[in-house]
Specification:
Helix content: 25-40%
Shape: elongated
Number of helices: 15
Distance between the termini: 22 Å
Structural class: alpha/beta
Length: about 450
């Protein structure tokens, strides 16, 4: 499947399309640009600022600044009217850019994104004739994964509770021939998923564990686990109004693993893929779990609840325990887990934890290659003592405010089998400030990098 906004390269199509000329902050207007376009640029004091666009019937100028934004082509897709366009320099943004033609194509598609579920039909998007040599199908798969994450995260919780996540997973399984099993409500207790049940039982929509499997059983086993807290009130440790404002995005981890899983299936990678989503709403009612409760886990460890607002790590604990029972070759967890991660690295970097140096290097390399920024964090073992409890095997929070994201990762590590090849991402899944192709709202992080890491395993 390819996007209607991206056309495979063809000489005739490129010749008929309106040319786009890239201009850096220190560059002159290209000599091949029409005189009328150069005059228009001079009249508007165009100086190649990143994201600036000057359009004329004979051509377009796109400012790329210092070339640091590999996806800056999105600005043209956002601002230009419907029609066909082609980059005159075949998608090489400029000599200073850390970009490739495929980034130009992906940036364009990102620039066409609109969340229109609750709006009337949008006007047609501009189309790009892809730079020569670009794999349009691969770029379209990457964009579709980003679009899926954004759509899921942007959807209000009233329309995206655990049953909504299940519907999405079932649609993906049906489309790609996967097998899906969903354990719902009290069946979670019978099947030994006590944490998922405890966190989600206060909601009117029953908690559930979504388990999707696809691919050759003999292929390398890749398991993705995503936090599916569809709305987080904080439980009995209830959040303030400001803290609840963005909690529709607390299922961002689930959105990421479903989108990455669909991308893997669409590409036909040679892996045996498993996607696990513990889907709950952390609500309040008479049967909500309480601060001070001691709860069992699938692994057999007991957890004292220091705070009901640290619920994501609880549901992930059962899912990670299940994942490890079949010893996957690669285990990845993604979750909107802590505010501490945002304080540490801000909203644009996807921090991750792993003890596997080779895996960390691969993730970092592919993050840079795909303009999909990631940052390795320390899984610092001495801090594990901060999770101690006087009455249970551990607490779900630390007794102090230090290293909150590290502490959460260390909690999850207790439920991952020793020696497992595991990486955990503490993502934000939201963009608070717009950039070309990256509007305010739900955002995909790290999945394009992770796709490449998994593709290497599949080879």
């Amino acid at each position: 499947m390819t996007s209607p906004s991206l056309i495979a390269y063809d000489v005739a199509a490129a010749t008929a399309a309106t040319p786009i000329f890239c201009v850096g902050a220190k560059d002159d207007i290209p000599e091949q640009a029409p005189d009328a376009l150069a005059a228009l640029a001079a009249a508007n004091a165009f100086r190649g600022e990143a994201g600036a666009v000057i359009a004329h019937a004979d051509g377009v100028l796109l400012g790329v600044g210092d070339g640091g934004d590999a996806l800056v082509s999105a600005a043209a897709a956002e601002k230009l009217p419907a029609g066909d366009y082609y980059f005159a320099d075949n998608g090489a943004i400029n000599s200073a850019a850390r970009s490739e033609p495929r980034h130009t194509a992906l940036g364009w598609l990102l620039g066409t994104y609109r969340f229109t579920k609750y709006k009337s039909a949008p006007s047609p998007a501009a189309r790009l004739v892809a730079p020569e040599g670009v794999d349009v199908a691969a770029v379209s798969r990457a964009y579709d994964a980003v679009r899926r994450v954004r759509d899921l995260v942007n959807t209000p919780a009233g329309d995206m509770l655990p049953d909504g996540l299940e519907a999405c997973a079932r649609e993906i399984a049906q489309t790609h021939g996967g097998d899906i099993n969903v354990t719902v409500g009290d069946a979670l207790i019978a099947e030994n998923f006590p944490m998922i049940h405890a966190v989600g039982r206060a909601s009117d929509v029953a908690p559930r564990l979504i388990d999707l499997v696809w691919g050759d059983a003999k292929a390398p086993k890749v398991t993705l686990v995503g936090k599916g807290v569809c709305f987080d009130s904080g439980g009995l440790n209830i959040k303030g109004a400001g803290g609840m404002g963005l909690m529709k995005k607390d299922m961002g981890g689930a959105a990421h693993v479903l989108a990455l899983g669909a991308m893997i299936m669409a590409a036909g990678l040679n892996v045996r893929l498993r996607v696990l989503v513990p889907a709950v709403e952390n609500a309040i009612s008479g049967n909500a779990f309480r601060p001070g409760d001691v709860l069992p886990t699938r692994k057999g460890l007991t957890v004292e609840i220091g705070n009901t607002d640290a619920e994501g790590r609880l549901v992930l604990s059962d899912a990670l325990s299940l994942a490890c029972e079949e010893k996957p070759d690669l285990l990845i967890s993604l979750a909107t887990l802590t505010g501490a991660a945002r304080i540490a690295v801000g909203p644009e970097l996807a921090p991750f934890y792993t003890d596997d140096n080779a895996l960390a290097e691969a993730i970092s390399r592919e993050g840079a290659r795909e303009a999909d920024p990631v940052w390795r964090m320390p899984l610092w073992r001495p801090y594990d003592a901060m999770l101690s409890s006087s009455i249970a095997d551990c607490n779900n929070i630390s007794s102090n405010a230090f290293a909150g994201s590290v502490i959460a990762a260390l909690f999850l590590n207790r439920f991952v089998e020793e020696g497992a090849r595991w990486a955990h991402f503490d993502i934000y899944a939201w963009r608070p400030k717009a950039a070309p192709g990256r509007p305010v709202g739900g955002e995909a992080q790290a999945i394009r990098a992770l796709f490449n890491v998994i593709a290497d395993i599949a080879d």
